[in-house]
Write a structure and sequence with these properties.
Blueprint: H1 18-27, H2 42-49, H3 54-79, H4 84-95
Helix pairs in contact: 2-3
């Protein structure tokens, strides 16, 4: 039995689809390794691409997540307006 390799059509890196995004990451040298990863291999990919120690990349990844998540939440809290209908509705029914 002969093993045949399946070729997938190359996606355009400028294509606004998941395939285009994956092609862009692959072109930049960011692909998740099959070995040496803990969860999905995202920090392992950055470690390999930017020649970092995998432990350092993982620590940086955790620090970035724990730093940016509260910042994004606070920004959403500041930028998102209060629900005007919910605050006005009880006062309008009490006056009637």
């Amino acid at each position: 039995m002969t093993a045949t390799a399946t070729t997938h059509p190359q996606a355009d890196v400028k294509d606004a689809s998941l395939a285009g995004a994956r092609a862009w990451f692959a072109q930049k040298g960011l692909s998740r390794p099959r070995e040496g990863r803990i969860l999905a291999g995202v920090t392992a990919a950055f470690a390999r691409r930017y020649d970092l120690n995998p432990l350092v990349a993982r620590i940086l990844g955790v620090v970035i997540v724990f730093t940016l998540t509260p910042i994004v939440y606070v920004l959403a809290w500041i930028l998102m307006p209060k629900d005007a209908d919910a605050a006005v509705a009880p006062a309008a029914t009490a006056a009637a």
